[in-house]
Amino acid sequence: MLIPVTIFICGLISPSQSLDNGLALTPPMGWLSWLRFGCTIDCEKQPTECISENLIKRTADVMASEGYLEAGYQYVTIDDCWPEKKRGPDGRLVPDNKRFPSGIKALSRYVQSKGLKFGIYEDYGNYTCAGYPGVLGHEAIDVATFAEWEVDYVKLDGCGAPDPDEGYPMFGKHLNETGRPMLYSCSWPAYQKHPHYLAIAESCNIWRNYADIANSWHSVVGIMKWFGDHQDEFAKFAGPGHFNDPDMLVIGNSGLTVDQARVQMAVWSILAAPLIMSADLSTMKPEFKEILLNRDVIAVNQDVLGKQGLRVWTSDDKKQVIWHRELEGDARALAFVNLGDKAIDNSYSHEQMLLPIQDFFVKDLYKEEQDQILSRNDDFHVRINATGVKFYKFIPKECESDDVSENEIKEISTR
Ligand SMILES: *[C@@H]1O[C@H](CO)[C@@H](O)[C@H](O)[C@H]1NC(C)=O
Ligand SMILES: *[C@@H]1O[C@H](CO)[C@@H](O)[C@H](O)[C@H]1NC(C)=O
Ligand SMILES: *[C@@H]1O[C@H](CO)[C@@H](O)[C@H](O)[C@H]1NC(C)=O
What we know:
single chain; TIM Barrel; 2 domains; 8-stranded parallel sheet; 16 strands; 33% helix; globular; disordered N terminus; disordered C terminus; glycosidase; Glyco_hydro_27; disulfide bond; hydrolase; signal
């Protein structure tokens, strides 16, 4: 009898309606070439940097062998600049024959042979953002080509798109009609002033809301601010199968310190954001790899409720920000972000943290502090590095003790 009671008090699964291709039930995790490798195409001058089958294979090898796949990073996606500038005589897209000599199908097979999934980029315009052939007027044949190449993920950009409200659902319909489940990443709202998020969530698995991320703390801060300022417009559309996308993880590149990298990982997890790395995994420094592979943080991102967290409190000087996400079992993840350049020592009330007045068991997800108990009567004390974060999971004490009794019951019944 205790078990259903526990579920009733501590868990509340909300149903959702949206695109139903069985994909992205939790935010997708993977790698995308753009932020780190952009449109580097001269493989003679930059053999390890150019967009090529070698880069994709090298990345897939590291993802499979160094723990990324095991941690959940699954998709390896080529961004812009993979095709020839001209379509083939049959109207089909052709991969650049110097950089992808084995063809895309062989490449997707290679990636899949490692247990990973393969993604590709296109654009709903006459040209991609970097000037390669876009899908406009070729939607059906391009989708058929992707299915033939056994693609698992399609990112559709919006440079030069005539009417996103028409084009994105139409392209999604083509994807569906192939019968091959392909995760559909749309750049649709990023190209609009007043996006119709309901329509977007009905067509796309993930969608880019805002400007491209860059390799800098300034860029990460700008995106966090925008997501906080506009959260009421779109947070509610996130859920299993459909998520807002604040763009790639900068972590592992030159632009972020370790503390700043922890901030991005924490806030992206609160936002139920896709965790799409874009760094050279073969030269990743261990301190960044540790952040990317942090199981407790990833568990917050992948929480089954799929509920997007919110910015719940900002200090008057705008330097301290609290982000809060509801998790399965009435638990919560809270990220205390310090945007300033001096360390902060502060205490926060339940009200500021938007926590119900009750006792919590508190775990530091970056494991610098011992587990602690926050009593319903106390404020919560936090010390945060300059441009850094403290990231905790708050578990209601009642639920924690219920879990214990549930285990005890199981033990007794199996004896
Ligand atoms: C795409 O190209 C066609 C053919 O050149 C042209 O008629 C059309 O206006 C272009 N559309 C956009 C949105 O640029
Ligand atoms: C196509 O859409 C239908 C209806 O939503 C869905 O049941 C099916 O799984 C989709 N198939 C693919 C391959 O996306
Ligand atoms: C803060 O800075 C110290 C010293 O640079 C470092 O050891 C620590 O990991 C940083 N992070 C946090 C969250 O304290």
